[in-house]
Structure formats: structure tokens, C-alpha cells
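hey can u run this one w/ PMV bound, need the C-alpha cells asap thx
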Amino acid sequence: MSTNSFVFDTLVEGCYQTQWEAPSNIALVKYWGKYGQQLPQNPSISFTLSRCVTTTEVSFSPREDDAEAFDFLFDQKKQPEFHPKIQQFLDRITPYFPALERHHLSISSHNSFPHSSGIASSASAMAALALCIVDFEKQFHSDWTEEVFLQKASFLARLGSGSAARSIEGPLMVWGQSEAFSQSNDHYAIAPSVDWHPVFHDYQDTVLIVDKGQKKVSSTMGHGLMKGHPFATQRFEQAHTHLEQLKTALITGDLERFIDLTEAEALCLHAMMMTSNPRFVLMQPNTMAILQKVGDFRNQTQLPLCFTLDAGANVHLLYPLQYRIPIMDFLQKELINHCQQGQYIEDQVGNGAKKI
Ligand code: PMV
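ok here u go:
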């Protein structure tokens, strides 16, 4: 589908109120490096989460030319520090929904997970806002199918934050053109119609909070580090290969292969940051201690526990639901001391965003 098919001549005006809940997601094959307007240099695949969500309500009303484009409440409070990001998002998406220029948006948002827990909320936040906006637009397009609606929501969410494109459906989302998935493309994410092995339908993601602080490298800067990176070409090729291999493991339920590829991806993301110019080490001593203990635990118990990482120090523990008890026991005995204030968040794979 060409991006032009996302521009509709919507000479529309009206009042509308809607509320959406969108989940966070955790990438297994990582997106790191972009081109053009928020397009990925390589394809990625993620688990959609179910408990870490953003709920956003938007009231649309016609506005005068010189009136503010939006007002914004986070947890019922004014939070002006979020305004530049929202304004940038609205500026980017207005060409794809011109009627936005003639409306005021009253936005109110809430996260289910603690603010400044070190969990990036931009994916769920941008997805929830995009869904509210597309829901408004849909009122003027009775011909839209569910598929068009979801594609456009992902397309707009991507313009807010790349990984937000994957926070629309579930349980697994692919974003970026890949030989392995026929409908995949760089403009929006898809939930492939593939029979994933049942073990992955309720896979656990327990996020160990090693550092609750702000991200040390912003996403924009981080992706920028891949421009002219000495290993960029190899990394982008590797992501394609990993995605193909991971697809097979996700269908067959080959946990050994799943673990091998998932951990390789996490470490490669950090290897890219450690070898860029400027370079960044985002793992902390507690991160390393956890990774070491996870490997030792797996060797000793033969239980399929593995880790993945985002662009930060926190560790996501991934494992099948059936091993929750021994793994939580291990977490309490061995890992919790490495978490800031003993904090961790329990989540699991979910099925995507919901209208409230
Ligand atoms: O969506 P962004 O621009 O914040 O980038 C996210 C990048 C990673 O979280 C590190 C990887 C990914 O694919 O989600």
C-alpha cells in the first residue's frame, strides 16, 4: 500500500469523544536505525504486552484559527513538558488527516505502570493517541474496514515513535519489510496471520528495574548513531536473518533457538551503542550481574529463562507461563537485590489495543 492511500480528503468538522487503551511492546528483533520520516532500516518483531498500557481519552471540537491545537492532562495534571512531543506528533500526522488543523484536541492520559520506572511509555502513549485520532477520522469513512483502521492507526503511531507502530495488535507484531512476512512493510506494522506456537500466547515478561532514571540516550540520538556506523550494513543484514530464523522458532516452539536469537539481538543492540561515535555503555553493573545469573540459572535448571534489553539498563526476563513459580522464586532469591528499590513489573504477552 502506498502512503498516499493514507491521505483522505476529509473536509470534515464535528465534536467527538473517544477513549483507547494501548499496550507497550518489547522487541525481540530490534529496530535500531531509521531513514526518511521514521522508517526503519531493518525489520523488527515484538511481543505485545498486556498490563503495561496507556489509556488516553480525546475530545475533539471545532477550533478557531488562532486557538491552541490541544490541551493535555497526564494523571489529571497539566504536564507542559510533554507538549513539544505531542505538537511534533500532530504536525507530522496532519498531512495524513488535514481536518486536525480545524479541531481542538482535549487529551487526557494515564499509564498503568509507574511513571519514571525506567519503562519507556512512548510506544503505548503514541499508539493510544493515534487510535483516538483515527477513531475520530473513521466517523467520516463508513467504508473503512477494520484492516484499514488498524493500518492507519499503526501508520500514524509510527510518526510519533517508531516502536509505537507495533503497539496496536498482538500477540506478535512485525514492522519493516522482510522476506519472511509477505505483507510486511516499512510504513506500518502488521500482526501476521501465522499460527504462533501456543507457548508464546501467554509468554511472561518480567521487567527488572535496574535504573529508574531518564534514558541516557534519546531515541532520536540513538537511531542517529547508526548513520555511518562501521557495522551498520552487517547489523541490518543480521536483523533480516534473525527475523527469518526467529519466525521458525516462534512457529515450532523451539525455545532453545528462541533464547539464542533473542539474547543475541539484545546484546547486539548494546554492541551497536558501544561501538558508535559517540559510544554509550547503557548496561550497569547490576544489569551485567542479572545477565550472568540468568545464564547460570538456565544451565543449572535447564529452564527456558532468557533476557532481552531495551536501550537502557533494565532487564526483561522472558519465560513460559508454566515455569512462573520456580522463576519468580529465583527472582526473589537472586535477582531482586540488583533492582532499584527491589522494583520489578510483571507483564505477559497480550492481544493489542482496546476501545474503552
Ligand atoms: O520507538 P523508538 O524510536 O523509541 O525506538 C525504540 C528502539 C528500541 O526500543 C531500542 C528497539 C525496538 O525495536 O523497540
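The first strand starts at residue 16 and ends at 29. anyway lmk if its weird
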